[in-house]
Design brief:
The protein is of the alpha/beta class. It is about 50% helix and about 10% strand. The chain is globular.
Length: about 425
Amino acid sequence: MTAPPDLQRAYKASLDCVHCGLCLPSCPTYATTTNETDSPRGRIYLMRALAEGRIDTDDKSLRGPLDRCLGCRACESACPSGVRYGELLEETREAIGRVDDNTWRRRALRSWLDRFIAHPRGHRFSMNLLATTQRLRLDRVSRALPLPGPMRRSLELMPKLAPSRERRPLETGIHEPKGPVRATVGLFTGCMMETVFGRVNRALLRVLLENGCRVHVPAEQGCCGALHVHAGLRERARPLVDANIAAFGKDLDAIILDSAGCGSAMKEYGHWHEGAVEFANKVRDMSEFLDELGFVPGTKRFEVSACYDDPCHLCHGQGIRSAPRRLLAAIPGLTLKPLARPEDCCGSAGIYNLVQADLADSILDRKIDDITRSGAEVCITANPGCMLQIEMGLRRRGSQVRVLHIAEVLAASY
């Protein structure tokens, strides 16, 4: 049977799955529901059935399982056949999205992503509005209002935002290192990292400068489009990709990120955007790049016990596991305490924790249990969504464990 043109790539990718079931124990949703259709194997079977015309795009047996998938890609790490599940999922969501293009839910999602995530002014406006709401304590009042579930959830998820001066964008242009130039790189500042965790971007800039990097921070850079791609809106992400290609230019050794989710999406631009292959090949996660460059830590001691949580899109999406741990081992005074299951998903997954709140909470509970049992004072991770999700889980437990980005820990040694 021949798959429709828009599902041929997905269909071909699905044929690599031999239904062995080795992916099942790694899947957070299957571990929670124990339903076969909430496993990678079950979802691949459904996606193949769609490509073969045995089920329709509006079939609830397809929509529910795909909506409940985090896209964490732990199944890819577990798969002995090398199934590219992430590509398969995104292709199928893209095809379904075209069918749903004129529904009000689809229009609302497009509008929100375009206006308040991808658009710099809209995104900054929404974060400034949230900061004002928090300062006036109106966020507490809003908990008693009949707000939509995702909106109520987003208010709980967001930490208390720092004053605007601490959330200011990085100074654009070229930043020169103190010593000899070892590499010339671009720094991708991102959306949430820029407006919520600006301190992380500043920490990364300092680390890069201390390690001999001439750092370009382009003023014209913008959203990477990861949330669009995950939602099956690749074509709306294409102009965002093109804008970043133009912003960073070609005369760079690497393009450095401190967001695992952005990095994973950007490294895979070439899967669907032929003009972005060269750009994608230069994208490096900060830990990956510093490890390859030869990290030079500072001498200041950081006396704390910490655990390291692997973001899904760093360990599963990019295959980066040992580099962050080597960097952390070089920090004077830092004691690393192992997690029992450091690669388990925290339940964040872009906007998953807003639209699949109950499942996300069950997945988060397992992560918080693991962090609590470790006895660590600090949880270190490398993705803004993970930071928000884990912080929320710890607040709910009344825990005093702090959440830091790895860039902040490395910068603390200088």
